[in-house]
Amino acid sequence: MDKRMSSLVMIAVLMLCTRCWIGVEARAIVERRNLLANGLGMTPPMGWNTWNHFFCDINETVIRESADALVSTGLAKLGYRYVNIDDCWAEHDRDSKGYLVPRKSTFPSGIKALADYAHGKGLKLGIYSDAGSRTCSQRMPGSLGHEQKDAETFASWGIDYLKYDNCNNGDLKPMKRGDMHPALWADKLGNSWRTTMDINDSWESMVSRADQNEVYAEHARPGGWNDPDMLEVGNGGMSNDEYIVHFSLWAASKAPLLIGCDVRSLSKETLAILGNEEVIAVNQDPLGVQAKKVRMEGDHEVWAGPLSGYRTVIVLLNRSPEFRIITAQWDDIGIPPNTIVEARDLWKHTTMDKRFVNKLKANVRPHACKMFLLTPLPLSE
Question: Which residues lie across from 120 on neighbouring strands?
Fold first, then answer.
C-alpha cells in the first residue's frame, strides 16, 4: 500500500502513561509542557511495531502473542519493551461523544486490557494516531480537532508510547507549523521523529534511509532521536549480510530499534541479529552521539561515532557487489594520531590480537559490513 507519503513529518513520541505528543499531561488539571524535559528516551527506544509485517491485518491475539514472544525469546530482557500497535486499530468513526473506539471485530477486549497485559509482563504498550482528519490508511479517524480528548483517552488506557503521523491534514504545516523537517523542531515536542519516508524490505530502501537520516545527525541526543523508520530485519526481502548492515547502521545511528517482523516465528539467524548484545550496547550508549559517514570512496564507506569511555564505534560498509578492502583512518574517525587501540569485532564477538595505530583495514564482503569497537590503550601497551 502506498501508505504515508506524508510520514516525513510524523513524530514518534514516548509517553509515561499520561503524556501525549503535544505535551498534554492528563491529570486533574491538564497542563501543557515541553516533552523534551520528560525524563524519557534517554536512550533510543526499543521494542516491536505491527506495521512493517502485518500492515492493517492486526488483532488483539497478534498483540498478546507478540508480547509473549518478546519475553520468551529473551528480547525483552535485552531492552525490547515497547509493544506498539500501528494504524487500523480503531473503528472507522468516533462514537457519539467524539471518542476513538477500538475495532470490535479485532480488539474486542479493548486497548486498556492490552495495556494491562503488557504491563503485567514488564512491557509497555504503544499506539498510533495522526495529526490529520484520518490516519494514513484512511481506515480510522485522526486526531485533528480531538487532540486533548485523544490524549486523555490514551492516558486513561495506560498507553506508554504514541506514534503520531501526519496524513490527511488539510495541508496544514506541522506546528502551523513552520517547517516540514521534524528533526529541526520536534525535539521540543517528542522523544523521536521521522527523518525519512517509509522504509521497505529491500537493500536500496534501507541504505537510502540510512543516508537520509545521517544528514540530521547533529540533532540527535539523549531525550530525542532521529528515526529512519522501523527495522525490516527478518521479513525476508534482504540477505542475512544485508540485515546485519541494516541493524549495524541503525544501532550506530542511535535510531530507535523497533522490530518490524513477526517475533512469534523468529529464525535463528534473525534472533542472532536482533539479539546481538554488543551492537545493542552501541545503540544504548549513554553518550548518545549519532555516528556519521566520515569517508566515502565510491561504493564503500566508513561510518564512525564516539561512545562513552573514550571509545569509538566504526562501521566499514561495502555497498558494491564485489569484495572491498576498506580502511578507517584515525584522522577521519576522530582518534588522535599515534593512538594505539584495541579492536573488537562486534559480529564475531572477538577481540583482535593485533593492536592498531593510525588506521584499521578489513576485507568486506559484497553488501555487507564490519563493525568494530575501538578502545584506546595506554602508550605502554
Answer: none
Q: Rounded distance, CA 232 to CA 208, Å?
A: 14
Backbone angles phi, psi at 126, to 5 degrees: -115, 160
Total residues belonging to the chain: 381
Q: Are 229 and 193 in contact (CB under 8 A)?
A: no
Residue 356, CA atoms < 13 Å, CB-side half-sphere = 22
- What are the pLDDT digits (tens) for 184-211? 999 988 999 999 999 999 999 999 999 9
Beta bridge partners of 335: none
Catalytic residue among 86, 130, 150, 165: 165
Residue 77 · residue 125 · CB < 8 Å: no
Q: Which residues contact 2 (CB under 8 A, 6 or more apart)?
A: none
Q: Are 162 and 22 in contact (CB under 8 A)?
A: no
Digit-coded pLDDT (tens) for 133-156: 999 999 999 999 999 999 999 999
Write the single-letter amino acid at 115.
Answer: A
- Calpha distance 253→280 (Å, rounded): 11
345 part of the active site:
no
Give the cell for residue 325. 578492502
Measured distance CA(102)–CA(94) in Å, rounded = 10
User: Strand, helix or coil at 329?
Assistant: strand
Question: Is 165 labeled as catalytic in the residue annotation?
Answer: yes
Q: Is the dihedral of CA 202, 204, 208, 211 positive or negative?
A: positive
**Do 103 and 89 meet the contact criterion of CB atoms below 8 Å apart?**
yes
Whole-number Å distance between alpha carbons of 125 and 115: 5
Name the pTM for this structure: 0.92
Among residues 86, 150, 198, 285, which one is catalytic? 198
And the C-alpha cell for 81? 519493551
Residue 381 burial (CB count, 10 A)? 8
Q: Three-class SS of residue 225? A: strand
Residues contacting 221, CB < 8 A, separation 6+: 187, 288, 289
What are the angstrom distances between the C-alpha of 274 and each of 129, 316, 369? Answer: 27, 19, 16
